[in-house]
């Protein structure tokens, strides 16, 4: 089989200064996306990711901003400078120990919904947008809370959702469940443009965020989860990046409107 070229346009990575974001930006470039738009909070951190890629020949621009800010989606679209999106990996997010519940929901779910709305008409034919969810979305939840988070984002935004997730440990998986439901709802609207919308749920992955969570969590919580998994270790950022690249490629042209679980069998090992 001859190798198919990636979709025309810019490869966009949010959360690009994080462990998975850096790995994904590099992998997308190596797979043939020569134009990259790297997004994160801090411009200086983004430059440390962009410069090595520029040295390799990538046409790399950066956009620094808070993904939850009302003007963020419009700013990202403006940073495209009229170019279409050939691939998007939305990796920006907060883990449970990083913020209060409302902030976790706002960044992980509400901001994602707004971004999806903004990029839909910028997607190139044959393109794909991959939204990072989490294997924690597969864990048991209170039915009434799960039902609320799988609805379309209410006009009141996080104010309507936060009462159903009073702790960060509840807010995080529910916010990611919201992302998975968003993908199912919006897949058709992307399909009408010849684009695909997919979510990807990593399990425990050896990133700075995972190490931060592990340090802040009760001792002995993470180890048993990994031990029960089919692949009894944490994932590597490069392993997640490789799946993102595949999902953005023509080889995945029939994958849309669904979640791809990439967790080494952690959910299966827990019996969920």
Describe the model.
This protein is an alpha/beta fold. The protein is 44% helix and 16% strand. The longest helix is centred in the middle third of the chain and has 24 residues, at 168-191. It is globular, with a radius of gyration of 18 Å. 47% of the residues are buried.
Provide the fold topology.
Blueprint: E1 10-14, H1 19-30, E2 35-40, H2 43-55, E3 59-64, H3 72-79, E4 85-90, H4 101-119, E5 123-132, H5 143-149, H6 158-161, H7 168-191, E6 196-202, H8 208-216, H9 222-228, H10 237-248, E7 259-262, H11 266-270
Parallel strand pairs: 1-2, 1-4, 2-3, 4-5, 5-6, 6-7
- Gap from first CA to last CA: 38 Å
Biggest sheet, open or closed, and with what strands and sense?
7 strands, parallel
Instruction: Describe the strand arrangement of the main beta sheet, using strand numbers.
Output: 3-2-1-4-5-6-7
Q: What is the H-and-E element order?
A: EHEHEHEHEHHHEHHHEH
- Poorly predicted spans: none
Please provide the count of β strands: 7
Average pLDDT level = 95
What general outline do the C-alpha atoms trace? globular
Structural class: alpha/beta
The Cα radius of gyration reads 18 Å
Helix content: 40-55%
So how many helices? 11
Strand content: 15-25%
């Amino acid at each position: 089989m001859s190798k198919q070229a990636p979709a025309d346009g810019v490869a966009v990575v949010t959360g690009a200064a994080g462990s998975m974001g850096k790995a994904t930006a590099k992998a997308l470039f190596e797979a043939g996306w020569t134009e990259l738009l790297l997004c994160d909070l801090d411009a200086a951190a983004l430059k440390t990711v962009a410069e090595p890629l520029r040295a390799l020949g990538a046409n790399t621009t950066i956009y620094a901003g808070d993904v939850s800010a009302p003007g963020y989606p419009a700013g990202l679209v403006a940073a495209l400078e009229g170019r279409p999106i050939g691939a998007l990996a939305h990796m920006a997010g907060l883990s449970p120990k990083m913020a209060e519940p409302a902030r976790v929901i706002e960044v992980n779910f509400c901001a994602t919904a707004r971004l999806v709305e903004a990029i839909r008409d910028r997607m190139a034919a044959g393109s794909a947008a991959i939204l990072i969810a989490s294997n924690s979305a597969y864990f048991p939840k209170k039915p009434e809370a799960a039902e609320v988070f799988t609805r379309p984002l209410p006009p009141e935004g996080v104010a309507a959702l936060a009462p159903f997730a009073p702790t960060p440990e509840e807010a995080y998986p529910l916010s990611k469940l919201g992302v998975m439901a968003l993908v199912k709802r919006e897949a058709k609207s992307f399909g009408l443009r010849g684009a695909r919308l997919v979510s990807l749920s990593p399990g425990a992955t050896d990133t700075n965020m995972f190490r931060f969570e592990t340090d802040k969590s009760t001792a002995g919580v993470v180890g048993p989860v990994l031990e029960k998994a089919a692949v009894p270790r944490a994932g590597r950022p490069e392993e997640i990046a490789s799946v993102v690249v595949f999902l953005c490629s023509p080889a995945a042209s029939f994958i849309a409107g669904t979640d791809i679980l990439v967790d080494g069998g952690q959910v299966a090992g827990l019996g969920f």
